[in-house]
Fold this sequence. Notes:
With 230 residues, the protein is mainly alpha-helical. The protein has one domain (4-87, 98-187). It is 52% helix and 0% strand. It contains eight helices and no strands. The chain is elongated. Residues 206-211 and 213-230 have low confidence and may be disordered.
Amino acid sequence: xxxxxxxxxxxxxxxxxxxxxxxxxxxxxxxxxxxxxxxxxxxxxxxxxxxxxxxxxxxxxxxxxxxxxxxxxxxxxxxxxxxxxxxxxxxxxxxxxxxxxxxxxxxxxxxxxxxxxxxxxxxxxxxxxxxxxxxxxxxxxxxxxxxxxxxxxxxxxxxxxxxxxxxxxxxxxxxxxxxxxxxxxxxxxxxxxxxxxxxxxxxxxxxxxxxxxxxxxxxxxxxxxxxxxx
Length: 230
């Protein structure tokens, strides 16, 4: 990552007395791991949340790409000047070892935002953007990324599957109270995220090998490793 603006969104921010938690890429990816495994076990709520993640990624990617193309055109239209986009001499490097494609796609969107900020900083430096226009670009992209990274935090692992939801068994009622009613086309399996995992049924009464445990609401401390189920 070249820019501080993007680097800050890797680990996010811990809550303070006057500032809320910002969920970063690492916590987003860690929570997605739980979502992904729950979707494999046929939890329709996990499928619903993966769809929301997919749609948010698509929207953020399209928005950042449009802004990037606009700035690229402005830089390309300069007469008598060839401009190289600014780059850090010491970029931040992070080894990615995620468990599912949507974690990697989140990292790709963050990388696109990083490139956009580099381009916007360059445009401001040579007088194509004023300070207010630059801040608008920077803040709009950051808002979209924060909103994307926050989505998986709203999912609650309650160890239910489609059959239980249809028959209102187990913790299905609690799931409806906490997360709403699953849309019928998602419950029936007609609609799912394009990169949704293959379903693996775990027989009732058999211990699952992955060791998932029910989730609790996010705390005010923002974890900085991928191993905290938050």
